[in-house]
Amino acid sequence: MTAPTDSKPLTAKQRMAIERVRMPEQDATQRAGNFEEVNLGLAEAAAVREAQRCLQCKNRKCVEGCPVEVDIPEFIAKVAESDFAAAFEVLKRTNALPAMCGRVCPQETQCEQMCVRAAKGEPVAVGYLERFVADWAMQHGLADKTDLAAPSGFKVAVVGSGPGGLTAAGELARMGHEVTVFEALHDAGGVLRYGIPQFRLPKEILDYEVGQLKALGVRIECNVIVGKTITVEEIRRDFDACFVANGAGLPVFLKVPGENLNGVYSANEFLTRVNLMGAYKGGPGRTPIIRARRAVVIGGGNTAMDGVRTAKRLGAERAMIYYRRTETEMPARVEEIKHAKEEGVEFHLLEAPVAILGEEGWVRGIRMQKMRLGEPDASGRRRPVPIEGSEHDVECDVVVVAVGVRANPLLTSTCPELKLNKWGYIEADEDGQTSLPGVFAGGDIVRGGATVILAMGDGKRAARAIDRYLREKK
Ligand code: FAD
Ligand code: SF4
């Protein structure tokens, strides 16, 4: 049913009768051969209709599910009134990167899972609406109108320009502090730039949101590796406080024979070559990438889905996921799994690699072993148990390993006073305070590989704590 069009406010019954909008998508066969964005975004009328589904609850469960506390009912109410500029203002009050969150946040396990409408059907499409508003603002050249506090005279350094670092930087700049972000790579954005592909998050969107932060006065210095180019000690000398958000970018490998063959990539390397270095565009001087005929990707998370869908777009006739548990245990977003299947990706479940097979130094196949699910392990997921005698070989010319990440010790090894946990992640309290006074940390370097919005939530809480720390210092 479509929404009534008269100007009287809708009754709850009328709102309940509106069906959830569907996101228009690029055709699956067509998109499997290009790097253009898959989701096409809502048209204005569809966004307004979807916003009218919101019940404007007094008990705002959806907000409880948002780590950056976006005032979801308020921004949706503005969309329902077709006042998109006001909706953008509401969003920007709490979220520095709404176009990004609208695209990559797992809303289905956060705000939308908490939405009261989810109990009896489909939740309000909060993510689609967030993306709509942010894109509308971008298309209409709207600037962030949040007021900047008067200059405080304090200087704050941020290490890493991923979602955690960028959020903290934006918040701190608004509080009147002079912020410098140090980024090891040659461009800002962290995983949003080098990990998540163009077909999920176009780089122009990222450039726009980074540009908005620069307009607030945030300085971003690229090609600076903290722990090598400069040290944490030097930062502590030259700045009044520091927020470390250098992510968890060290790949985990399979530790099976054959892992050093040509054609084996960590997902990080594979995706960085394509996304950051533009390998998919080809042409002289571009970073090379092997365009596999048969690509095997090991893993079941978002990184594995991004890897396999990228391999497909690079021309693989067979792009295959191998995962040692079942689809129920896959950590990837439901939407990414659905999109991958529609694009022709093969899913091979309950199988794990035992060796990578080669010929003259190059990958020629992979030996897989079948698994069954046993008792739950420490993560609560049922442990995969190998089935004796079930080994079999699969032909392939590229293997992408996407089985997790760890903390990169480059920064922490040069700062022994920074207390780490047993996995090498920085120990920090709820506000991000580390063992070093004035040094705060958040995002994946504290949590281990997590999500964009959790890193942003950490950045936000740490910015408030840094502000308190600086004012107390004064
Ligand atoms: P990062 O985004 O990792 O950024 C850290 C930055 O610090 C990087 O730019 C790095 O170059 C820089 N850095 C590292 N060391 C140094 C140093 N010594 N000096 C200076 N700079 C340094 N999450 C979702 O919510 N939705 C998704 O769809 C999703 N998809 C993903 C897909 C992939 C391929 C990957 C890898 C992750 C995905 N995630 C997703 C997880 C999410 O991207 C991360 O949890 C999030 O980016 C963590 O943010 P962060 O700010 O802590 O660190
Ligand atoms: Fe709207 Fe759902 Fe939030 Fe209620 S819980 S205010 S219906 S988005």
- Can you tell me the number of structural domains? 3
CATH topology name of the largest domain: FAD/NAD(P)-binding domain
Number of helices: 19
Oligomer: single chain
Strand content: 15-25%
CATH class of the largest domain: Alpha Beta
Average per-residue pLDDT, rounded, comes to 95
Q: CATH superfamily name of the largest domain?
A: FAD/NAD(P)-binding domain
Regions with little confidence, pLDDT below 50 for 5+ residues: none
The global form is globular
Ligand list: flavin-adenine dinucleotide, iron/sulfur cluster
Number of strands: 16
Question: Structural class of the helix and strand makeup?
Answer: alpha/beta
Order of strands across the main sheet:
3-2-1-4-16
Helix content: 25-40%
Measured on Cα atoms, how large is the radius of gyration?
23 Å
- How would a crystallographer describe the biggest sheet? 5 strands, parallel
What topology does this entry show?
Blueprint: H1 12-17, H2 28-31, H3 44-51, H4 61-64, H5 72-80, H6 84-94, H7 98-104, H8 111-114, H9 126-139, E1 155-159, H10 163-174, E2 178-182, H11 191-194, H12 203-215, E3 219-221, H13 232-238, E4 241-244, E5 250-251, E6 264-266, H14 267-275, E7 294-298, H15 302-313, E8 318-323, H16 334-342, E9 346-349, E10 351-359, E11 362-376, E12 382-386, E13 392-395, E14 398-401, E15 405-406, H17 409-412, E16 439-441, H18 444-447, H19 452-473
Parallel strand pairs: 1-2, 1-4, 2-3, 4-16, 6-14, 7-8, 7-14, 8-9
Antiparallel strand pairs: 5-15, 10-11, 11-12, 11-13
The structure holds flavin-adenine dinucleotide (FAD) and iron/sulfur cluster.
